C-alpha cells in the first residue's frame, strides 16, 4: 500500500508534474526552430553516415555494436512503461479534478470522451501534458535506433526516416496546440513500445524469437487502433460542439494517413515476397523453418 501511494505521488501528484506548463520561453525543446533543426540534423546525420559506410566498408559488412542495441531497447521499454503508468494515473487525477469544467462546457460527459476530445479552451499545463512532454523527449531516444540499423545492416529507407521524423513532429504538435486524442495516443503508443522494445531486448540477448513478424504485427494493431480513434474524435467534434486543437488534429490525420499508406505498401510487399519464397522452398521442410527464423531475426534488427 505504501509503495502504491509513493508511485502515485511521484507519477501524478508531485509538484513538478502538477505545476507543469508548456512554454516556448521556459520549456526545453519547445520552439519551432529547435524542432526543425533537430529533424534536419537527424536526417542529415543518418544519410551522411549511410553514405560514408557505403564507400568505406565492403558490401554487407556491418559494424559490431556489442550490447549497446540491447541496452537501448531495454531503456526505451522501461521509459515507455513509466510514461504509460504516469499518464494513466495522471489522467485519472485530471478526470477527478476537472469534471466540474465538463458540466460547464457540455462538450464531454464521460471519461472516455475526454480521452478522445479535450474541451475547447484547454491549455497545455498540468499532469497529462507533463507526460506528453516526457513522451516528446523520449522520441529523441528512438532516433538512435536509426544509426544502429545503419551501422549493423547498412540499411536506410525513406519510410524509416519519414516515420521517425513525423512521429517527433506530431508529438510536438500535441503540446503546442493542446491537441485532442493525444492522451489515448500516448497510452496506446507507450504500451506498444514497452512490449516491442522488451521483445527486441529479449532477442538482442540471444533468446528465442517469435515464429511470426511480431514487431510488424504490433505496428499494424497500433495503426488500426489509431484509425478507429480518429473517427471517434471527428464524431465528437461535430456532435458535442467542438474539440480542442482540431487544426493540429487535421494536419496529424493527413500525416498519419501518409504513414499508413507507406507502411501498408511496405507490409504487403514484404509478405508477398515471403509468400513467393515460401512457395518456391516449401519442399525444404525443416531447413525452410530455420531459414525463416533467421530472416525473422534480421528483419527484427532492421525495423
UniProtKB/TrEMBL annotation:
Residues 279-303 are annotated as: Disordered. It comes from the Eukaryota. It is found in: Membrane. One of its GO terms (molecular function) is fatty acid elongase activity. Residues 279-290 have a biased composition (Low complexity). GO terms for cellular component: endoplasmic reticulum membrane. The keyword Lyase does not apply. Keywords: Fatty acid biosynthesis, Fatty acid metabolism, Lipid biosynthesis, Lipid metabolism, Membrane, Transferase, Transmembrane, Transmembrane helix. Pfam families: ELO (PF01151). GO terms for biological process: fatty acid elongation, monounsaturated fatty acid; fatty acid elongation, polyunsaturated fatty acid; fatty acid elongation, saturated fatty acid; sphingolipid biosynthetic process; very long-chain fatty acid biosynthetic process. The chain crosses the membrane at residues 32-53, 74-93, 158-175, 181-202, 214-236, 248-268. It is a multi-pass membrane protein. PANTHER family: F25A4.4, FATTY ACID ACYL TRANSFERASE-RELATED. This is Elongation of fatty acids protein 3-like.
